[in-house]
Amino acid sequence: MSPTTRDARLPYAALWFGMLAPGAAWSIQEVATYAVVAHSCYPRSRPLFAPSVGGTWVTALIVTVVALLAALAALWVSSREWRRHRSTDHEGWREELLGTRGGTARYLAFWGVTHSVIFAALILFNGIALFIVPTCSY
Questions:
Q1: Does residue 21 contact residue 117 with C-beta atoms inside 8 Å?
Q2: pLDDT tens for each residue of the chain, 138 residues long
Q3: pTM above 0.85, yes or no
Q4: Is 53 exposed, middle or buried (0-12, 13-18, 19+ CB in 10 A)?
Q5: DSSP string of 57-106?
């Protein structure tokens, strides 16, 4: 693989990371925190057969912080690629986009920023809920 081919593919990997990582981080955060909290809180009337996870709230908080960091990393990558592919010359922009395949990169960068902001907000709201709502209400 020549260096130019590798350099041409590398931004697309970063763009796909910026677009897909925030949703994956939110999904993993949802599933992991639900599993941890449900295991330690359910069923309320009978004891669990398996021992409860120690530090349920702390574990859920750590998962939330890691997911938020992943979403923010994706936001940084997407915004960097958006600035990199932004056209400063508005004359002949159609020809430039058609000639350099910059339209695809700008599209992925734009939606990567959008997804990152939305999913980072969702992860942050889940983190705030850890402080407001009791983990197990008996």
A1: no
A2: 454 544 455 568 888 899 999 999 999 999 999 888 877 777 656 545 555 556 788 889 999 999 999 999 999 999 988 888 775 555 555 555 555 555 777 888 889 999 999 999 999 999 999 888 877 655
A3: no
A4: middle
A5: HHHHHHHHHHHHHHHHHHHHHHHHHHHHH--S--TTHHHHHHHHTHHHHH
